[in-house]
Amino acid sequence: MKASIGGYARAESVPHALSLLGEADGVGRILAGGQSLIAALNLGVSAGDMLVDITGIETLRGATLDGDRLVIGALTRHGDIARDPLIAEHAPLLAAAAPLIAHDAIRNRGTIGGSLAHADPAAEYPACVLALDATLVLEGPAGRREVAAEDFFLGLFETARADEEILTAILIPCARPGDRHVIREAARRAGDYALAGLAVVRREGRHRIGAFGLDDRPVLCAGAMAKWDAGDVDGMIAALAKDIDPPSDTQASASYRRHLAGVLLRRIAAELGEAQ
Amino acid sequence: MTIRFEDPNRPNSYIGRTVPRPNAGKLVAGRGRYVDDIVLPRMVHVAFVRSPHPHARIGAIETGAALAEKGVLKVFTGKDLAEICTPWEGKLAHLQGMKTPPQHPLAVERACWVGEPVVAVVGRTRAEAEAGAALVEIDFEPLPAVTDIRTALDKGTPVLHEALGDNLCFRKSNEAGEVDRVFAEAPRVVEATFKTARHTGVTLEPRVIITDWNGADGQLTAHVSNQAPHMLQVLLAGHLDIPESRVHVICGDVGGSFGLKVHVYPDEVATAAIAKIMGRPVKFASDRVEAFTSDIHARDHEATGRIALDENGMILGFDVDDWTGIGPYSIYPRTSAVEGLQVTNLIGGPYAFDHYRCRTSVVFQNKGICAQYRAVGHPVAVAITEGLVDKAAAEMGIDPIEIRRRNLIADDDYPKTTAAGLKLEGLSHHKSLDSLIEAMDYEGLRAEQKDLREKGVHRGIGIASFIELTNPSPFMYGIGGARISAQDGCTVRMDPDGSVVALTGVTEQGQGTEAIMAQIVAEAVGVSPDLVRVVTGDTRVTPFGGGTWASRGAGIGGEAALQAGRAVRQQALEVAAAMLQAKAGDLDVRDGIIVDARSGEERLTLAEVGRIVYFRGDTLPKGLPRELMQTRHFITSDYPYAFTNGVQASYVEVDTDTGFVKLLKHWCVEDCGRIINPLLVDEQIRGGIVQGIGAALFEEVCYDASGQMLNGTMADYLVPMSAEMPDMVIRHVETPTAESALGAKGAGEAGTAGAPAAIMNAINDAIRPLGGTVTHMPFTPERILRALGTITD
Ligand SMILES: Cc1cc2nc3c(=O)[nH]c(=O)nc-3n(C[C@H](O)[C@H](O)[C@H](O)COP(=O)(O)OP(=O)(O)OC[C@H]3O[C@@H](n4cnc5c(N)ncnc54)[C@H](O)[C@@H]3O)c2cc1C
């Protein structure tokens, strides 16, 4: 199918982008790497959008340190996240997640902001920011606000971001010595969205588990986390099965995905030295 | 006139060597010319409104809003096109009892599958045509759908085409010996059920056609991505009431085909009909979503099979009941019965035994049409055969290699007619198996497997012997009345500069046809291959031929090229003999130069011969033919098909917690007769194996019970990708066919034929000790865990 769009404009700055969105009369749509949006347009999922291309806003690209927080600009590409030494040092979970996303051609264009705003339940980053206890920065006509990752993902492709808001940055508490970051997933082919995946952060004996591909949204697995913190590995696996509500599709049934999640978590626990 | 193929140092020894593909540079540089690259003056675009229903009666069609849309030029319904285009029926006379209803370019009364074209909207651009298509309103009245194969003939199942009486398209049983008695008395009978998943070809270049009707000279030109241009010429002419001579089909570069582009598609015929009505060029380019619903599907089979053996593991017989669902219509003109028919011929193909029964039941369903796709029927038959052989071996405690050694037809037992009735000229099963065992270090792998098993790592080795049908004679289609040519021709012409042009009726879709034609003609004439330009795919230019399918290009088209090239060489020698006052028999052509055959002394260049023939014919003796152009045609006559053989092995590791399969390595030893270009043959085998891996592990067109398609994008229809592919070791045995001087059989489908069975057997070898087996393709991680009993709900 041929994509049908209402128009295209290139924003020079965040305020410019916000004003373009305002002028678009409700059909404005931010275009970042285009790796989800263009595919959707080509499938006819959405038509008539007024595209506001933000990829020229250089201030939204790259990672910096702000005290004990890592600030990652929304336009930072998957490929850059995989390679940036700052990210590898302070948020190794993301550095490990990026190579699991799609293929080089897509990683060279797709952005972390786009991935989080898109909120695909099977995407890696949303689960990672849950595990990392990150904060998302949104800028809109009414100004800037911060939303905890836990409060951001509301449902299938649904987030706390208002239509006229731009996700500008992700704030991540820097990893401390001794912290462990692990991501594991099972995908049929390298680069596919995973059938199931888990992102885990251990800090001072406490665990945060973000699950992807296992529900209609990325899930923070509170039940499993509590059991793990209490040292109950079997209890953790049982609790995980209740934390998630996996979908069934042509690739796999819900019960297979639930089983797979348990296998992945057991393997992560083993990797982190838990007795099985 | 024989070529000493066994002597690699013979002059002009291009046959048997890896030479570069003449078209590769052009394609890699992006300078190919695919149909989508062609822009004609006054060209318009057509988009189709396709049925969203598996089965529905078509009521009122409201086209007003579409016609009012900017850029929309015309809207056509099934009734409109039925006025100028006759319907077709995919039947062959020799397939007795076959039924299929008339099919129109656009559905007229009922839509019978999700994706069937119902209305055509023509716009100045594709986008405008699509915008118009979105505004067409069709009053569909949904009808009950037939989807399940095994219950298609049950009393309670609705009949898809009332006029046909039931849902049976075709049924045939191939029987020999005393199956019932042997199975009743055999010391060992092993049974299993198998499923191969419905999948599709997923060509890199989708189907594209541009048709142009020139009313002034009453001529239809079709630029089309297709593998059988002459067939299409004849059929378009017939259904659109145009003399055959006035239909010109041109197939330029084709981006993959795999059998998918050898069929008549309603949307393509509709495009031609619309061009005839509108009197201007009309283009249809399928997009990827359309491709999944409208390209042919294949391999939707379910089978129950039994094998009988004596106490020594000698095979006594096979008894197989195969069922296949083919969608609502049999494909035109080749029919959708051939896949099932092949299964009835190919079961047990590599083995010596006397008692045989295989029945296929080909039933209608409200799903996409199934038809010939690379290795037609072979992967199904090989999976059933080799699955049963391995299961029997496991139950009897015989090593899989050993049971094959005992039962494979002996290499000196040819010519032979099998229990299934196949006439085999000469195969090399045992030689191939020996080569495989050596290549893979079978004993070493078994030892490694055992060691790792003790450490909880579950690896498996799977073997699959197979035969492959190539070089078909008219027994395949022509005998049934289809105007599909089994012969093929080649015209070879030498130009004044000594370079050569070869016009061939076989076609190139990416497999390297042009490369092997250049090699063959180069050796035949005696010039370097880069002096040979090959022309394919133009019905006005090339000899009338069949195109490329059923692995016939090298064996049939190649022989015609060899003969034509030798004939031109002879003409050049005769002219040179006159010029040199020598005897043609004392001269030879080597690397573009006429030489003294005995001493090798250079006498004259071919360019000089060309100069004299074309510009100074006055200097040659009167009456001497001054022609440097010859055409030869070739058809097989001793055997209906040239069978090839081979054996594959797969080494896998199964993660028994997740069900994931890792392909560690794959081997194939195959015998395609004379090898013309070793690299191209290896690539054919590798590519074929990759498609077989797709069948075994990844590819499945999924429908729900109501006939809705559940996947249909590259995100959820999984094609095999490079990261998951194992290293492949390819080896060859060469048993040339004596039917031709070239001795080539086909190599295009062997990889696909054997790979699924080898992988199935490897997975089962890995998980059998844990109590599971899988026989339902693709072997998804979930299916493997279900087989192991890990998941039960
Ligand atoms: C073949 C393929 C495989 C893929 N596999 C994976 C995979 O395995 N894992 C995975 O996680 N992803 C995968 N993706 C998706 C990829 O990661 C996308 O890049 C990502 O989801 C979107 O980022 P983008 O920058 O391309 O956003 P776009 O496609 O430009 O936009 C996506 C959506 O987010 C909105 N948006 C973008 N940026 C912002 C912003 N800063 N503020 C507010 N809204 C914004 C857009 O309006 C749009 O609705 C795959 C994509 C493809 C094509």
Quick one: which chains have the greatest interface? A-B, 22 and 31 residues
The appropriate CATH architecture of the largest domain in chain A is 2-Layer Sandwich
The structure class of chain A reads alpha+beta
| Structural class by helix and strand composition of chain B | alpha+beta
CATH classification, class level of the largest domain in chain B: Alpha Beta
Sheet-strand content of chain B, in percent, reads 15-25%
The third-level CATH topology of the largest domain in chain A is Uridine Diphospho-n-acetylenolpyruvylglucosamine Reductase, domain 3
Distance between the termini of chain A: 51 Å
Any ligands, ions or cofactors bound here, and which? flavin-adenine dinucleotide
The CATH architecture term of the largest domain in chain B is 2-Layer Sandwich
Quaternary class: heterodimer
Put simply, the count of helices of chain B is: 19
How many beta-strand runs of chain B? 30
Structural write-up:
The complex is a heterodimer of chains A (276) and B (793). Chain A has 12 helices and 14 strands. By secondary structure, chain A is α+β, with helices and mostly antiparallel strands. In chain A, the strands form 4 sheets. A 5-stranded antiparallel β-sheet of chain A has the order 4-5-10-6-7. In chain A, strands 11-12-13-14 form a 4-stranded antiparallel β-sheet, sandwiched between helices. A 3-stranded parallel β-sheet of chain A has the order 1-3-2, covered by helices on one side. In chain A, strand 2, helix 2 (37-42) and strand 3 form a beta-alpha-beta unit. In chain A, 48% of the residues are buried. By secondary structure, chain B is of the alpha+beta class. Chain B has 3 domains: 24-32 and 487-634, Aldehyde oxidase/xanthine dehydrogenase, molybdopterin binding domain (Aldehyde Oxidoreductase, domain 4, 2-Layer Sandwich); 35-143 and 206-254 and 261-294, Alpha-Beta Complex (Aldehyde Oxidoreductase, domain 3); 375-470 and 638-787, Aldehyde Oxidoreductase, domain 4. Helices cover 28% and strands 24% of the residues of chain B. In chain B, the strands form 8 sheets. Chain B has a 7-stranded mixed β-sheet with strand order 3-5-1-13-10-11-12. Chain B has a 5-stranded mixed β-sheet with strand order 7-17-16-15-8, sandwiched between helices. In chain B, strands 20-28-29-30 form a 4-stranded mixed β-sheet, sandwiched between helices. The longest helix of chain B has 28 residues, at 553-580. Chains A and B meet through helix 12 of A and helix 4 and helix 19 of B. The structure holds flavin-adenine dinucleotide.
